[in-house]
Amino acid sequence: MDIIFNCxxxxxxLAADPVDSGTEIECPSCSKTIKIPAAGGTDVRSAPxxxxxxxxxxxxxxxxxxxxxxxxxxxxxxxxRATSESLIQKPNRPLDVxxxxxxxxLRVKTIKHGDCVEVGKDKFDEVTTEFLAKIxxxxxxxxxxxxxxxxxxxxxxxxxxxxVVIVYKG
Length: 170
Known about the structure:
By secondary structure, the protein is mainly beta. The protein has 2 domains: 1-76, no CATH class; 95-169, no CATH class.
């Protein structure tokens, strides 16, 4: 069973073998010299020794050598990968940055359905298609449908309508 205690200076939780009780070590967090308390002392807890992957790192004495002959110091290595691929994928650049690189600014066009109705004839699809053809596929960035409500001036009633917001390079 390991003894678990806290550094009196920085309150870092440390674990040590009970055989190491009474030895002086350097705290890995604050680098101050502290003494490993006895297993039955106050502010000391016991913990079962777990597997190597889950157990706390043993604390080395100030001289760097382990005083416990049956428990050698653990050495860690950095894993090596055979490929040179990046482990962290970079996100796509924001649209405003991408537009600045091309020397063209982003523009926004809103086409409202209510503005495209003439004498009972709905020309929303034709107006939208013509505008998209005019800007071209290379300049098109995104199209977003929008629902909105407004007050009709004549009837003073709320009317729901829709529109599209087109973002393009211009």
